[in-house]
Design brief:
Strand content: 25-35%
Number of domains: 1
Distance between the termini: 27 Å
Shape: flat
Structural class: alpha/beta
Number of strands: 5
Order of helices and strands: EHEEEHEH
Length: 100
């Protein structure tokens, strides 16, 4: 039997956006769960957001605290990580995990 993984998908592209990134990440999460992996999501829904000035359909997280991200990552204990897009808070997650 193959080893089951704890996977963290950190993305700034999520509901209510409807696009290829959101659809792909949702399908990826569902497929991994079907294979019995534990999948955690870190999305803008966990933060206060404001509309992006040049693209109001995209919500930008404004209350991202490294302490919260460390707690979330520590509690989920991901072994695999997926990052979508490169906004500052997702880069922060990457940096936290790199230091582990």
């Amino acid at each position: 039997m193959k080893k089951k993984l704890n996977i963290l998908i950190a993305t700034d592209a999520w509901d209510p956006q409807t696009n290829g990134v959101v659809t792909t990440l949702k399908n990826l999460g569902l497929s991994l769960k079907e294979k019995k992996h534990k999948v955690s999501l870190l999305t803008p829904k966990e933060f206060i957001t404001i509309p992006c000035p040049t693209y109001p359909e995209i919500r930008l997280s404004i209350n991202v605290f490294q302490k919260y991200l460390k707690k979330k990552i520590s509690s989920d204990k991901p072994r695999c990580n997926s990052y979508s897009n490169r906004r500052a808070h997702w880069l922060c997650c990457k940096e936290i995990l790199r230091k582990k």
